[in-house]
Each structure stands twice: as C-alpha cells, then as structure tokens.
Amino acid sequence: MTEEVLKKLGLEMEGTEAVLSLRPGEARNPLTKSDITAVRFMVMGDRLMIVEPPELVGAPLIHLGHIEDGDALTDLVLKNLSDHVFNVDRRSSELTMLGLHPVVDEKSLQLSAKLHSDDFTFLLATDRMGNFRVSQAMRGKMELTTSSARAFELSEFRERRALEAYLVAMFADVVSVAIGTPPPVVAVRGIPLRDIVKAFGDEAAIPPKSSLEILVELKVGERKYRFAAARLGGTTFRGLLAGAEGKLWAERFELADFPGPSELLARALKIPIGQVKVV
Q: Taking Cα atoms as reference points, which of 105, 171, 76 lies closest to residue 133?
C-alpha cells in the first residue's frame, strides 16, 4: 500500500507505522475517562494492524480494500472500541452469574477472572471479540501449558460446577512446562455408575436442573485418554475428549445422539473400536 493511498485515508506515516488522529471526545477509555487521541497501525500490505493504544490492540485486522475514505476508517475504529466495551459488559454479567469476580484492566480493557477448583487455578480471559479462553492454568504451584485451542463458550455453562469440571478435565492430563518435576498422578475416586444403579435402581431419575458430570478413562495400547462431560441443561451436555497430546474433541451434544466415549475415541483416532479399552 503506497503512502499516497494511506494519506487519502487520513493516515500519516511515522517511520514504518501509520497514525490516525482522532478528534477530542471522539473515543474515550470508559474506565479512566481519558480521550484516545490517536491510533497507530502497522501496515501489512493492504491490511492494518493496530499496535496502539492498548484499548484497541488485538482488534481484527482492517482490510483497506473495504475502506473508502478517512471517515470510514475512523468509524470502523470507533465501532471496534464500542463492540469491545459491549462484549466486556456482557461477559462480565455472565461471569457474575456464575459466582466469579470479573476484573477489567484499566489500560487494555481486557476482561479476566480467576476460577479455583480443587488444586487447579484457571485465569479466564476474553479476546477483542468477547471469546473466552484459558490464558493461564496452574496445578498447585505448577504452570500448565495453554494455547489458543483452550477456548470455550462461557454462556453454555449455567452452573459454576459444570464449568469447573470441564476445565479440570481439559487440563488434567496436560504436561507442565519446565518448572521441575511433572505433576503427580491423581487417582480417580469417582463413583461407578453401576454402583449408583445398583443402589437406586435403573428407574431413578436425575432432576431436570441438577448438575451432572461424567468421567470415563480410556486406553489405546499404552496411551491414555479421558472423556468428560458436564450437563448444560436437560439432555444437553458439553463434552471433552483429551489425551497427553491435548484436546481431540470438544463439543456440545444431545444425550440421544451421543455414540459413547469408546466410539468417539475410535472415530477421533480413526481406528477400530475394538482397540479402545475402558479403564
């Protein structure tokens, strides 16, 4: 993109970066009440990536082929800020409903919250589109590896306990980063469903609004896998299948349509179901 074209869009070049000046009061940090007077971009061919101010860093790349003039560019920048503030407000309410304490950074306007479950601690954070991810996971004092794949939809979880179960299952088999010895193996102390059926009978029912979590451990040869599911409501569940290599499958599903953990693992690994063993 030539400097002449950028100038037509109201941008001034400063070294390798382009700067868009904003009028006083046009954009404002809602927490500090300070004006945002300029937006600095890195020029990437026919796209712009915001590098300053912190309130806008991380916004989607701007395709200059879709921008007609400087007013259109300014409107898009202001819309990105407005959408982010809206998402922060909306997601903060969802965190509060789950009994979590939302925290918004004054400079970056990034929303985050900590969740503690047994010996796990998770730092949940949103991106500029309002999507949640696990930005940090700790098991005791050991940090577990995280990646962009650790994203999830918060609104699917109506109870905090269901979210806790899902996150613990996601990270239970993750190898810790180099902080010393690997995390200890935690023995499963769940109650087999056959014991529950034996005690209460197969005609017993689970109340419509009660939480329900399922855990199944599987093996293929010497490789271990874990399936976990948390009830979202009615017969709708959120499931996760993971192994030492990370997440293999994570989706919401209806109970009547679910093929079973063994079949699910066989499909994910593209192997005969006979090779899958339940631990």
A: 171
Give the pLDDT of residue 187.
40
Q: Supply the Cα-derived Rg of the chain in whole angstroms.
A: 24
Average pLDDT (135-153) is 75
- Pairing outcome for strands 11-14 and 17-21: antiparallel
CA 23 to chain centroid: 35
- For the record, the structure tokens of 218 come out as 């599987």
Residue with structure tokens 């996971």? 137
* pLDDT tens, position by position, 23-68: 988 999 999 999 999 999 888 878 888 989 999 988 888 888 878 8
How does DSSP assign the chain, residue by residue? --HHHHHHTTEEEETTEEEEE--TTSSB-TTT--B--EEEEEEETTEEEEEE-TTTTTPPPEEGGG--SHHHHHHHHHHHHHHHHHHHHHHHHHHHHTT---EE-TTT--EEEEEEETTEEEEEEE-TTS-EEEEEEEETTEEEP--TT-EE-GGG-SSHHHHHHHHHHHHTTPPBPSSSSPPPPPPP-PPPHHHHHHHH-TT----TTS--EEEEEEEETTEEEEEEEEEEETTEEEEEEEETTEEEEEEEEEGGG---HHHHHHHHHT--GGGEEE-
| Contact between 154 and 93 (Cβ < 8 Å) | no
Query: What pLDDT is stored for residue 176 in this prediction?
Result: 39
* Residues in contact with 269: Cβ distance below 8 Å, sequence separation at least 6, in sequence order: 220, 248
Residue spans per domain, the chain: 3-96, 158-278
